[in-house]
Design goal:
heterodimer; A: mainly alpha; Four Helix Bundle (Hemerythrin (Met), subunit A); 81% helix; B: 2 domains; 15 strands
């Protein structure tokens, strides 16, 4: 992932962008915790709220794969459809760990 | 807005990432940034810091963005701060509701920081332009001659406006006046007002207000915006203690929408063809005293034949008989209902006869403006 190019596309210097990505990772980790807590109890409202938040933050920074995956989770949770939610959350965690590792 | 100090923006979002992203982007443009992460903090910051613009997220836990706009618009010192809201792409109802509540624009999420920056710039420019327009209108009015605007607008001049009027001025420089304004083919504005006091400056001020109505009642401004702009100019030019109470109605015969604004004036009577006649009760500040004002507003969907009556207090208020307009309005409504079978051009005369059979006993000026949809 090219942080410099992603930052530039948002009109930000690389260091400014990295600082914001750090906040992103922090909030993403907390959103994923919320997802993991809410899923076993079938708390679909909490799942869709956390996915909605992650969708927005990732979308704003240009992390489109994370944003799309979060959108799918949000959509399923809104329809109370649990199918595929657990694997999707695992995939999300992996994507965010990927970003963290690059920093 | 002080041009010499940096422009300031209040950023409101429950997501700290969004706040940080907007802060970084906008601070680089030279704006002073205030931040809030929830509704109550946003409102408090708006009051204390008086920012030049607010970026407001709609979906927040607890008090959401709509609640925040509503409260900001209902408070004099924050009502005129432009608000741009942030909302999801597909939420069309949210966008419409935001505009209805008085937002100037929206930005869809996920947002691009540079788009936010461009929109913020645009709306700050508009806001500065509006403020300087108000100042320049005030300057021009100080030099205006009253010759062009002192004539009364007669129903014959605008037959499509379908109105009737009774105008009687007891004093040489009466405080009451009215105006009918063609805004477009199907849209007319109707204005009835009463200046405090009857001195010679009143007739000059009446011309000024008519000039302001012509300048500010256009299709691009909502009626509430028109009256606020007129208020802002009058605050600059009126002598101390002078103010005006007024009603402004804008009727769109195509969409059948009637919007009535009330500024501390006796309430409009509404007599529909079918259904109950009623008084449009609204609270509102007077015009020309306060920079930050709140006016009453009501929007109605009307039908052909429905009638509205706007008037000044001379007919229904009596210092001799100690009748004030709050109780006088009921008598006015009854008289308006009795005039339903009279053509609109003659209705004001009939109402005057009903309420004041002996015109020699008149204590004050009279204006009755009757409008038929």
């Amino acid at each position: 992932m090219n942080f410099k190019a992603l930052g530039e596309s948002l009109g930000l210097e690389e260091d400014e962008f990295i600082e914001i990505v750090e906040i992103f990772v922090e909030t993403a980790v907390s959103d994923i915790k919320k997802l993991e807590c809410a899923l076993p109890s079938n708390d679909f409202a909490a799942v869709s709220d956390a996915a909605h938040s992650l969708k927005g933050s990732a979308g704003n920074l240009g992390f489109m794969d994370i944003s799309r995956l979060s959108a799918t989770i949000e959509d399923k949770a809104r329809k109370n459809n649990i199918t595929g939610l657990a694997p999707a959350i695992i995939e999300l965690t992996a994507l965010i760990t990927g970003i963290k590792d690059q920093m | 807005m002080n041009i010499n100090s940096p422009l300031s923006i209040l950023v409101v979002d429950d997501n700290p990432l969004n706040v940080r992203l907007l802060e970084t982007t906008l601070a680089k443009e030279g704006y002073n940034i205030f931040k809030a992460y929830n509704g109550p903090d946003a409102r408090e910051s708006a009051c204390t810091n008086n920012p030049d613009l607010i970026l407001l997220d709609i979906q927040m836990p607890g008090e959401n963005g709509f609640d925040v706009i509503k409260k900001l618009k209902n408070k004099g010192d924050t009502a005129s701060i432009p608000v741009i809201f942030l909302t999801g792409v597909s939420e069309i109802d949210a966008k419409l509701e935001g505009f209805e509540l008085g937002a100037v624009d929206y930005i869809t999420k996920p947002f691009h920081p540079l788009e936010v920056s461009a929109r913020v710039r645009l709306h700050l420019k508009l806001s500065i332009a509006t403020n300087s327009l108000i100042r320049s209108q005030a300057d021009k009015l100080k030099q205006i001659s009253d010759a062009q605007t002192s004539m009364l607008t007669t129903p014959e001049k605008y037959p499509d406006a379908r109105f009737g009027v009774q105008y009687m001025s007891l004093h040489e420089a009466g405080g009451d006046f009215y105006e009918v304004l063609p805004i477009s083919n199907d849209i007319y504005g109707y204005f009835v007002a009463d200046f405090s006091g009857h001195d010679i400056s009143t007739s000059y001020l009446t011309s000024s207000v008519k000039g302001l109505l012509k300048q500010n009642c256009s299709p691009i401004y909502q009626p509430l915006e028109s009256i606020k702009m007129i208020n802002d100019v009058l605050v600059e030019i009126l002598p101390p203690g002078k103010y005006l109470t007024a009603c402004y109605a804008r009727l769109n015969r195509k969409t059948r929408q009637m919007r009535v604004i009330c500024a501390g004036h006796p309430p409009v009577c509404y007599v529909p063809v079918t259904g109950q006649a009623r008084i449009l009760e609204m609270e509102g500040d007077v015009i020309g005293i306060f920079k930050n004002v709140l006016f009453g507003q009501e929007t109605l969907i009307v039908n052909p034949g429905d009638r509205f009556y706007m008037y000044t207090d001379g007919l229904i208020e009596s210092t001799d008989k100690k009748i004030v307009w709050s109780e006088g309005a009921d008598r006015m409504l009854a008289a308006c209902q009795s005039a339903h079978d009279v053509p609109i051009s003659k209705a004001p005369e009939k109402i005057t006869q009903l309420l004041c059979p002996d015109l020699s006993k008149l204590e004050d000026d009279i204006v009755i403006l009757a409008i038929e949809v």
